Amino acid sequence: MVTLTSPIDVLYAKLGDKVKENVSLAPYTSARIGGPADVLITAESADELAHIDALLRKQDLDYIMLGGGSNVLVSDRGVRGIVALNRAKAVRFHNGDQPSVTAESGVVFSNLAHRCASKGFAGLEWAATVPGTVGGAVYGNAGAFGGDTSGNLIWAELLTENGHEKFTAEQMAYGYRTSVLKRAELGAIVLSAELSLKNSTKEEATVKIEQFSAHRKATQPPGASMGSMFKNPNGDYAGRLIEAAGLKGVHIGSAEISPLHGNFFINHAHTKAEDILALIQLVQETVKRKQGVELELEIELIGEW
Predict the structure, then answer these.
(1) Residues 177, 192, 200, 256: which is the catalytic one?
(2) Is-above-0.85 flag for pTM?
(3) What is the span of the domain harbouring residue 13?
(4) Domain count across the chain
(5) Given 200, 228, 256, 258, the catalytic residue
(6) Is 228 a catalytic residue?
């Protein structure tokens, strides 16, 4: 548990009931897995997020940022320290010949794609099936169906040690499911982002989303999961390699490698993080032995392991 009583008391004094102690993180993750955080602080806006960051820095307290809780596996022991829950969800649309949308980092990315379509804007249809938040998408260069964050990002508002800064897609140094932030080459948090759109019609954009959604339902399993477990190796697919290794449908505890898509691990209720981790290690070892390929995690491991 947190032993720095005085700094925590300061947080209570400054933030009131936004501060909670010993909170299970499982409900805040897409896989519904994970132990408690010593302290959970909720931010309802980008300004509040920046304020919380400043308070924690002043108290010399490190923290972990949690948005939609996809692409992360929280340990059964949880997080010894502070987790900031990002619920900053303001959205502004910009009309014109080159329309765009500015969204705070806690906005659910798939919801944003649907909102854009409903207003007759195209360009983010690919994101309608992407789990997680805008902040997570900016951080990890989320993508699907031939689109990705780097292709839409005009700028990301980051809070760095120098204060508020706007980074272009080029400055984010994007790669496949990675960025300057994910590689820990820059210490910063994502406050908001402006994303490019295209003028279209509600009907056209909605039809495209429906096509993408139908494809996803046909090829990806329902149920609680973290999304894609491993990055696709160059020129291949992690799901294909896992299937070729004979691992689809394998269980450890109540965790299962999906029989529908090998790159998805499903929580069949009360799954332990240690069972997911055991499946990860089994897949990596088996695929390396049988196909000579080292699978790299797309998700991140969080907490005390």
Answers:
(1) 177
(2) yes
(3) 5-86
(4) 3
(5) 228
(6) yes
